[in-house]
Input
Amino acid sequence: MSIESASKLLEEAQAAKEKNPRKAEEIYRRILETSAQAQAPPSEREQILRDQETALLKLGELFRDQKYVLFFTPSLLVFSSCVQRLERLGSSHCHVT
Output
């Protein structure tokens, strides 16, 4: 996934958030599950990581707004996996308490 496609996907998910939250969730998950960061040139890795962090935050907001986070155990596993990955990468943007 390129930087441009991740940015477009974030915009698409944001637009779908109100009318089709499931589609927005699917898009955010796709961004989070990408492994393009490993193949990206060093100059693009930070932006890809920021896009993944944004997708993670937006997915959390979506769950909060839809009040169904407790019913989506697999999504909680995605959150946990992403947070662990971000911590291993030493992201300065992700603060987990």
